[in-house]
Amino acid sequence: MVQISFKRFSLGLVLLSLCAFLAGCSAEASGKYWGEVDVPQDNTMRYITGSEPESLDPQFVTGQPEARILIGLFDRLVEYHPKTLEPIPSLATHWEQNEDGTVYTFYMRNTGKFSNGDPIKATDMVWSIRRALSPELASRYAFLGYDIKYGEAYNANKFFVKDKNGKFLLEKDFSSDPKKEDPIAEDKPASLQPKSLKDPVSAETRTEPDAAPEPAEVKQESEFQKFINSPTRLTVPGDEKDQEKAIKQNPKLKAAFENTELVAVTAEDIGVEAVDDYTVRFKLKQSAPYFVGLLTHQFFAALHRPSIEKFGKEWIKPENIVTSGAYRVSVWKPYDEMIIVKEPNYWDAANVKLDAVKFYPMDEQTTMMNIYKSGRIDALYNHTVPAPWNEYIRQYKNEYLLHPEMSIEYYTLSVKKPPVDNLKVRQALSLAIDRDALEKYRKTVKKLVDFTPEGIFPKYEEARKKVYSRLAKENGISEEQWSKRYFDPERARKLLTEAGYEVKENNGRFSAPSFPADDITISYNTAESNKAVAEFVQAQWRQNLGITVPLKNMEWKTYLPYRSNIEYTGAARAGWVGDYVDPFTFLSQFYTQTNDSSTGWWSAKYDRLIEEANNIADPMARFEKLAEAEFLMISDQPIIPLATSGTSWMKKPYIKGFYPNPGTMHPWKFVYIETDPAKWDENVDNIMSTSDPAVDAQVEALMRTQEQFQQSKTSANSTKNINGKTAE
Amino acid sequence: MLKFILKRLIIIIPMALLVVTLTWGLIRIAPGNFYSGEKKLPPAIEANITKKYGLDKPWYVQYGKMMWNIVQLDFGDSLKYQGQSVNEIIWRHFPYSATIGLLAYMLALLIGLSAGIIAALKQNSLFDYGSMALAMLGLSIPNFVLGPILVLVFSLWLFWVPPARWGGISSLILPVITLAAIYAAYIARLTRAGMLEVLRSDYIRTARAKGLSEKTVLLKHALRGGIIPVVSFTGPALASLLAGTVVVEKVFAIPGLGKIFIESVFNRDEPLTLGIVAFLSILIMVFNLAVDISYGFLDPRIRYE
Amino acid sequence: MADEKDIVKGTSLWKDAWQRLLKNKLAVFGLIVMVIMVIAVTIGPPILRWATGLTPYDIPADADYIKAFPPSWQHPMGTDDAGRDLLARVLQGGRISLMVGVISTFVSLIVGVSYGATAGYLGGKIDNVMMRIVDIIYAIPYILIVIVLLFVFSGENTPNWIDAISSSFGGGAGLNQIFLLFFSLGLVSWLTMARVVRGQVLSLKNQEFVLAARATGVSTFNIIFKHLVPNTLGPVIVYATLTIPSVMLTEAFLSFLGIGVQAPYASWGSLASEGIKNIALFPWQLIFPGVTMALTLFSLNFLGDGLRDALDPQTRKF
User: Fold this and answer.
1) What predicted TM-score, i.e. pTM, was given to this entire model?
2) Domain layout of chain B by residue ranges
3) Interface of A with C (CB under 8 A)
4) Binning pLDDT at 50, 70 and 90, where does residue C311 land?
5) Which are the contacts of B187, defined by CB distance < 8 A and separation ≥ 6?
6) Fewer CB within 10 Å: N-end or C-end of chain B?
7) Which residues pair with A170 in a beta bridge?
């Protein structure tokens, strides 16, 4: 008797909960908004930015959650455009570059202030950048400053070499090794070595002393100017072992190394200079057309020297920290909340709209969605809406933001290990994945067969299209074959058969018994979406090639060395998020032999194309060169591109000036809360093309200084009048 | 007795150091390091980092330095959370975990003990079956399932309590219930089993035969013996509850120590992991000592030499 | 002295116990459910495959079907996010979950009971040292142990016997890791068992029947394993029935953290942890694996209780 009633009881419970769930679901689908919409009354936005920030030191942190907070706390020479992320004036009102793109001069406004009221001067910028690159800080993002002349040498503890006559050895005299910073360049093809001689614009030989152009307003060349514009000095590693290695590899250096004195590269040697109180000049080691965009990064933020020197590592504590941005730290309760409030000393405080932003660290998707639905937060960060929810959530057109992102998903291939050392096998593996199906399945991504994302760099894509069709023709690839790059199972099977692994067909099922599928794996780090994609790819290969490749899931920190040291065989999941808005942020991954592509792939020709491209002043011509490089790399298939990621996050309709830009970076001073429901955002699929007069006017006003400067420059006038006085 | 307690207390220190050493060894065996990320670092930057944190020194030097600091109760700074010392992090987040853990255990004791005792006294009654079935339900549902279901019902449909985050008593209700469920179920079952055992034993029969009142028999004699299993369960349970539980802290976004601990393991944040392990191991050992001592009070048959 | 006599003629004890167990309807219910469950997960997947062609791993070739479908005649339990039949996955997941529970609990039982009983009976310094070792292992985070074990023994380093077990179940890199997981879980879950047994033995060892046994010259080994251990069976079985769900829950917890069962394999725990994320949209993804798991644990518990009542030698005094 009794147990029957229990069975009934539990059965009843199950049924009850089932009904409750179903009722809940059907009830949810109605309504204009998903969940509660309560406009905050205190002009404070509540945001989830991801996991707990590691630190508030903008030069030390590497994660996006931190970056989003630091955009508000620290000002930089240039700010992100809220929609495109392109650089717009911030501390610098305007800037210019010299002809060969190796000298950038920034003219700062004289109204910039730290949160304690101290003015932000050019010397502060110089000090900040020196600190960023200092080996003692050991910033993981130091490579962002490696374009600055001697920046890498300083960060890597290198030494100048002074010969017995007191003269410094010059790099160009020892350029038999084309990659001077790269002591491990052992197996470089001999044909490549005279490259720099053949090619007059290559990085190594370019910086002739007389060729250095002088900015118009500098009359007298300072000591520093003389030094930084002189031919690049040779630098050698400080570590004895590395030093010996470098010397051994370079016979010329070995001969010259006798009786020399080593002089450490110091912070004062790097190519950044305060020309006057409000002018900063950068000298780059080679042309870098993306350089201004790079400076939007928090790594180049203006830091307050006295407070950092006074408090040491404690300077980031809320009671000590001196910031330079539109907001200052008010409350920091780790793992609970961080509140930043409007900074009255900020030079543009009049245009800062929100009184405060509250950041809640959180990393569970379900929790975030719950708290968003309950109306306790106003917006989420990217990738927070789970892919399977897409079909349901996208009904809420006023809240759900799915736009292309400057990040890609792909599989690296271990190109030096059989069987994927065979190009045909690599191509077969790539062609056997139905990317349309992947797009349909994952829903938040767009298919991709290249290495730069689609929908982010429209100009580059235009150039790439042109170059690709030319190169395809040159390489004898038929149009039909080209059009099926996204998925071509027949050709995939043909290629695999050609590679020596015959694919047999039996009643519509394929099998390739000779392919050593058990010797390779699809490796990925633990994450719901990685697992879903890996299972999909595994199924695709099984269906289209008849091979069942085992999956291997690893915890993140175990996975990283496994992939980067190429301990894996087969395919390994990777993702790449651009640091600045330029295709080079992607293509640089395969650049130089010590690249971090985790594949083992390197091509001298690729390097040369990239270098040539970055020395071209005309943007379109440069893009075409870059596209040539991309074609070269993709044709060799060291990776299997899968998808361009999508933003996939939500915001309440009353949050305005907050855009699904390609990097999910939000300059907070453009964000505001609209209390009038009539003006709320609607159908945010079009948010990027819809104009918001308030934000647009604000952006335009900021951009005016640079536009005027460029106009006046083209009309060949002196730029002095505008210098630092146009801000207000 | 006092000597026994002192001896056990003193031995806790070398044991905690042993735990720290073993954990350190495990971290060093585990692949990966705290600074690695999606972007592989240039060798020069990696060299800067290893130099800054002294990782370029031989392992015995690193170990010796670490142990010397730990003996002085200095666990150093977290590697991930720059500028925050491990001690600071532990003391900042322990109160959150301890609050939730303590409340949950009190709730679990209240429910578990009363349900277990009544079920044992009224063996085979409807209450017995009902409470034990519920206890089994509690044991059968993982808390990462229970938590979100509670949130769905009480936060998103009924709007009674917030779905997550620390703040105010209302925000504690769901996490405490989620956490308490499984412990209440454990305790109820252990109590019932223990009580049944004792109620059938000779000394209870003797007590009854002596003509003592049923109340005295139960409260003075049976209960003392019957809850021994619960007591031995309480030590480790309370220690791990106080130190935080990952799932509840993740699901409800509570800044507790458990989540931070798991993350430190996944981040290879060695000082933080070691600090929390040391803290946790001392906590566990002290609680176990307390359990052993309480045996002596509860069960006169156990003697400490 | 009644206890002593009963244990000596062991066969009748077990026979009696079995008969008493059969009288307990709840336990019989649990036993039946468990038998059905074991049969279902053993022969279910091949039958399902033969009858409908559905496998737990195949993602549909047609992209329109790669998504979550509610229960239907074709998919009685619906599908998961990748369009795979949930019934097939629940059956396959059951194999892994039941193996986790049984193998790990078995390891913990063997190690824990003998360790705890020995420590408790010998007492003194030996007890002290043995329990301190338990304390030390207890204080080391098992997540760390699991990560290190999975890393150290993955790939080429997998011990042969794990390879052998996993290849007898079909083999492959994924299964190796799953068996490693069983092994690791067993090695971290015997500690509480040892404590419980020790506590029990401590309270028993001063009782008359032990003193009598010692006086009559029974060897220490026999006292521990023939006299003390059977008398701790009640709590041990209760605790073992608690260990099975707790090990299964631990596995689910590891799945929740992402270091559990290797995809495309699944366990009830990993299915439930995936399902809970979609609970508001696709409730069937939680309900079916969740209810199956809960039902199994229910039954195990009923069965455990029944066994306790049946095996407890003192019960017959009433």
Assistant:
1) 0.85
2) 2-31+41-71, 89-298
3) 2-3, 10, 14, 17-18, 21-22, 24-25, 28, 365-366, 386-389, 391-392, 434, 436-437, 440-441, 518, 521, 526-528, 531-532, 534-536, 538-539, 542-543, 550-553, 555, 558
4) low
5) B108, B109, B111, B112, B113, B116, B230, B233
6) C
7) A233
